[in-house]
Amino acid sequence: MFSVGLTGGIGSGKTTVADLFAARGASIVDTDVIAHRITAPGGLAMREIERTFGPDFVAADGSLDRAKMRALVFSDDAARRRLEAITHPLIRAETDREAREAQGAYVIYVVPLLVESGNWKARADRILVVDCPVETQIARVMRRNDFTREQVEAIIARQATREARLAAADDVIVNDAATPAALAAQVDALHQGYLQHAATMR
Fold it and tell me: Binding residues for ATP, per the UniProt record (predicted)?
């Protein structure tokens, strides 16, 4: 099945864009949603996370204590690698399963760290970047997540640069101050192209 890897920096509007594609008949496989599912109470990753990091990183409801884990992995690269060794294989397996079961016209993988991971170019037929200025990202995330500016800047510093994402892109959606209608028009244009690509792969 024809597939698109959708990415963008934090606060760029990936989820909004993915929802617009879903409304037009695309199947969405969102790695962030999968990551939250496997670290929810009883999630596939939780037993190994507790064994590796200890009960302090498990919230009262049995889910991952995200704030505590975020603070650890931002300051400790070895801890980040240990967490990724647990979660990444599970995310990969769930991603593949959802893609196999997809019933849409084509599949869109939503992958926040697509450029950083390095292996998605081989898995997706096209790479779509949702782009906006860094200042727009910061303002959106501060408003949405109640983070400080410094927290958002630290997250952005860990992600690929805007320039690196654009260099990897086959397609770009500009979501700086776009009205809903303008954003939908960009999605419509790409959707028609993706339908044509999908038709040639059947």
Answer: 11-16
Q: Is 179 annotated as a binding residue?
A: no
> Is 14 annotated as ligand-binding?
yes
Q: Residue 13, annotated ligand binder?
A: yes
- Same domain, yes or no, for 3 and 91? no
Q: Tally the domains of the chain.
A: 2
- Reduced 3-state DSSP string for the chain: CCEEEEECCCCCCHHHHHHHHHHCCCEEEEHHHHHHHHCCCCCCCHHHHHHHHCHHHECCCCCECHHHHHHHHHHCHHHHHHHHHHHHHHHHHHHHHHHHHCCCCCEEEECCCHHHHCCHHHCCCEEEEEECCHHHHHHHHHHHHCCCHHHHHHHHHHCCCHHHHHHHCCEEEECCCCCHHHHHHHHHHHHHHHHHHHHHCC
Judgement on whether residues 20 and 60 belong to the same structural domain of the protein: no
Residue 63 annotated as part of some ligand binding site: no
Model's pTM, two decimal places?
0.89
